[in-house]
Design a protein that fits this description.
D-Maltodextrin-Binding Protein, domain 2, Arc Repressor Mutant, subunit A, three-stranded antiparallel sheet, alpha/beta, single chain, 3 domains
Length: 304
Amino acid sequence: MDRFDAMSVLLAVVEEGSLSAASRRLRAPLATVSRKVADLERHLGTRLLVRTSRHVELTDTGRAYVAASKRIIEQVEEAERQAAGEYSAPRGELHVTAPVMFGQRHLLPVALAFLDEQPEISLRLMLIDRQVSLADEHIDVALRIGHLEDSGLVATRVGAVRRVICASPGYLARRGVPRLPEDLAQHDGISFQGFAQSPEWRYRRDSAAFTVEPRRRLAVNTTEAAIQAALAGFGVIRVLSYQVADELRSGQLRTLLADFVPEPMPVSLVYGMAELLPLKVRSFLNWTVPRLRTGMANLDSTIP
């Protein structure tokens, strides 16, 4: 039995939540996945998983073994990276994550230019509107929007974004322009499942925060759909400044209640603590940080 392979299979089962899901992720037959876990349990002489028809749960012994397995696999991967020369030259696969719209509009152009300069680095860019665990997803660098929790990660700030409330000129001509947050109670709102740390309808006045929501006229599950609905005149939206920069500059949307919005939120590149960063990560940070800072400064100066 290849114990290292069996550990990897067990971790896939735990991370995916079932044997069948692990089978799909590993592109291996379900019987093979089940056999490797069973062989590992026989070798250890203890049960690691409690299997049900739909999912698996770890036993107490299993939890301890999985934690140790993760450390072992990480150490092996680190040794392989060193052996492959990631600490002597910028090369290898770089894993980066960012929110969808920010990644598409601002990070991707910078990253493509970086790849032109570094032919021995390949990039996996995961754009997703939720925070993922760098350790669990094997992420090298993450772009985060919002105040960061003390998680043991290193953060380099590249700028800030504002929350903005806006609507189309056509909607405002029909329904009037709200002058105070309380006026929004008489307006139609467009809500969406956006960035998790961005409260949709929070305001500040005299250093105090409070919430007033418009009447929900439409609810969608993407930022892009909410913006399109606002452009069509269906109501008021609350988004982040970079998400509607072009629409604000062109006058297709108008900013509302600018004096009452909360303080800007920081935008940071975060990565794990390490005594020695792989050169592919250091090279990416050295390339990306100044370019994102310049781009975000220019963006903020051009938004009304």
